[in-house]
Amino acid sequence: MNANMKSCAWRGTARLLGVALIMMGPIFVTAAASEELFGQPDSPANSAPWFGNTVDKYFEIARERLWAPATGAAATVLNTPTVQSWMAQARTTVESVQEAARDLTAVAQDLGTQAASALLGAVEQGGAGEPATAVTTALGADATDPLEPVNRAMFLRILQEPQGITRTLRLMNQTSVLGRYLWVFRRIVGQMQHDLFHVYTVDQHILMVLRNARRFFMPEHAHEYPFCSQLAAGWDKPWLLYVAALFHDIAKGRGGDHSQLGRGEVRLFCRQHGISNEDAELIEFLVGEHLTMSHVAQKQDLSDPDVIAQFAHKVGHERRLTALYLLTVADIRGTSPKVWNAWKGKLLEDLYRATLRALGGRAPDADAEVESRKRDALTELARMALPHEVHKSLWDTLDVSYFMRHEAADIAWHTRHVSRFMAEAQLKAQTPQTLVRARMSPWEEGLEVMVYTPDQSDLFARICGYFDQAGFSILDARIHTARNGYALDTFQLIAPNLSEHYRELITMIETGLTRTLQQAGPLPPPSRGRVSRRVKSFPVTPRVSLQPDEKAQHWLLSVSASDRTGLLYSIAQVLARNHINLKLAKISTLGERVEDTFLIDGPDLQQNRRQIEIETELVSALQG
């Protein structure tokens, strides 16, 4: 039985491969006709004065050799006025006529009588536009081809096999079987993604995401992402996630929102393959919202109960949440090896856990959450054998927002060092100046740096300037001003070769940043590093968006630009010059592109003219 199960996927591939080779016959005929007329298909025919006559001649030969033998419903489809009109519009280049002939001939070969009739009706209703949508709609009809139900059952069986799924789909893609079976997949095979963080073509990215999702359900890969594997162990239908992965980016390159376009494609797939309404609804949701969780985790304030409540409302229930979390992790990991990091994993996991509590009927309660974190922090301080009341001198100066934005372990770490620092200054009858402490991040990647110092308008810019000169990249910044006028800021950093020299780097930060903050003087200019060849080839147009938050208490500043050395420092300088206070910074680097979000406030933001001036200044800073 095991041998039969193991070979099922390969038998299905072989069967679909045989069907596809039969269907691909007209393509070879088209290519032969092309070469007979004017040599290789990519000949520079546009430069020849006889180009128009040549295309007309090719068009007629294609009709005679490929369409004239067609009979019945297939011939009716190919000769409809709408199809003929569309073909006439396509007669602009040799290549476009070749492609049109391939597409329409393949349709005629593939469809049975009922499906061809459905195509005829769909084309007539669709007008003279591109018939691709009509083809997709028509393929949803029940074909008279007796192999069609067998092929669909075989494809679902491949996705439901316990092993060999990824290898099978990759083989189907390499042999063009997958594109012949799924017409919408055919359109994205080999399609480049012209950005700075996708390193795969669309079809290869899709298969990489499916492979990542598969690994969550394989015990031998449980060590890679334990939490994902833990959630996957309780999931009853892994193949639903595979279908969502297969369709999540399938509509890229068409224009418009590819998530919503893909939602329509996967709805048709589910109807064709007899997937139940409940399962189809889940797959549709995953395809349509596959970017939502990443956006919320990386760009919004997860300490805000309203953010969690809105996301929980969109998700609806735990089953959707778990599936969306698994697909999001698989998607980010399948973009590029450089895009995923432990900090993004922590943000997604924090959002998952907070949303799960909200879906369980536990409404976000800021006061209860603060008290819980305080209790956990006091327990942690007790383990360090610190005096019982050591926390009061610091905690009495902090408000609710600080406790909402920091976890209990971070609060205990801050309290231990700041309380000792303040006690030492009090013994010496001195005013506390600047305290900088650093440690390896609890999330196993990067450094966590705490700064406690008298607040000043350009403090964030000075800190960014130091990290810029020292070669560190900031992943996250949490800015807080205490009631006593001191700033208590926390930064998440990464740097090359960090794991090898972290002790030396920690010492360097604690001494160097302290010295920098204690020195007065103008801000140094940003460093100018080399721009990578990828950025030169694919420059990102700088974009700045300034919008009030939903409570109208702060402003959300979003910037997007090509990554370069000193970029964040340049932004911080603009904010400092315009006396803008920073509350929260979320730094997201996607390959060679940055998408940063800042929560800010300031009196000048209430004036439209000053808003435009600040946005213009930021765009200039992003352009370098």
Structure explained in plain terms:
The chain has 624 residues and is α+β, with helices and mostly antiparallel strands. It is 58% helix and 10% strand. It has 30 helices and eight strands. The protein has helices at 2-23, 25-38, 51-67, 72-78, 81-90, 94-110, 113-126, 132-138, 147-159, 165-174, 177-181, 183-186, 202-216, 226-233, 238-247, 258-272, 277-288, 292-299, 305-315, 318-333, 342-359, 366-383, 392-395, 400-405, 408-427, 459-470, 502-518, 533-537, 567-577, 608-623, and strands at residues 435-440, 447-454, 473-478, 486-494, 543-548, 555-562, 581-590, 593-601. Strands 1-2-4-3-7-8-6-5 form an eight-stranded antiparallel beta sheet, with helices on both faces. A hairpin with a 7-residue loop joins strand 3 and strand 4 (486-494). Helix 20 (318-333) runs antiparallel to helix 21 (342-359). It is globular, with a radius of gyration of 30 Å. The N and C termini lie far apart (65 Å). Mean pLDDT is 76; it is low at 1-59, 65-74 and 107-146.
Q: Count of helices? A: 30
Distance between the termini: 65 Å
In terms of quaternary structure, the protein is single chain
Low-confidence stretches: 1-59, 65-74, 107-146
Residue-averaged pLDDT: 76
Strand order of the largest sheet: 1-2-4-3-7-8-6-5
What is the number of strand segments? 8
In one word, what is the shape? Answer: globular
**β-sheet strand percentage:** 5-15%
Helix content: 55-70%
Give the biggest sheet.
8 strands, antiparallel
User: What structural category do the secondary elements indicate?
Assistant: alpha+beta
Radius of gyration: 30 Å
